[in-house]
Amino acid sequence: MAFVRFFVSTCVCVAEKLGPIVSLQRSFHLTRGSAWRIFGLLAIVVAAVVLLALIAVAVVFGVAGSLPAVSDGSPSVSVAVVLLFLVALPLQFLLNAFVVVLATTTYIDLRRASEGFTPDDIARIFE
To answer: Could you give the C-alpha distances from 67 to 33, 42, 76, 98, in angstroms and in order?
Structure first.
């Protein structure tokens, strides 16, 4: 559960201009009472990523299986690996962006719930 309690620490560090240790402490404080909700969000994200990865692997190896065979009669594994890389890389970029957005919106929601954080407060972060 430690990861869940520290999930918004990067947002805290950037938005509140705190050092790493203080950001971890602040994140731990902000997530108090919301750890299970955050854990549920992360569990849904992980389940969706695993599902997408399984679909990507199935599609890539299905495509590779339909390619002409190499001399020993088996499908070209190297083609499948290259195709998998070309599918996995954009998915990884999207996942990373999604997790950052999820952490940011979670941080804003936690601040709003505990401190009455407003959209004007959000705008002041980027001034």
So the answer is: 53, 37, 7, 34
Helices then strands (H, E): number in the chain?
Answer: 6, 0
What pTM value is reported for the model?
A: 0.77
H/E stretch holding 53 reads helix 35-65
DSSP label of 69: P
| Overall residue count recorded for the chain in this entry | 127
Contact status, residue 38 vs residue 4, Cβ threshold 8 Å: yes
Q: Are 23 and 12 in contact (CB under 8 A)?
A: yes
pLDDT digit string, tens, across residues 68-99: 655 555 556 667 777 777 878 888 888 899 99
Burial class (CB in 10 A: 0-12, 13-18, 19+), 77: exposed
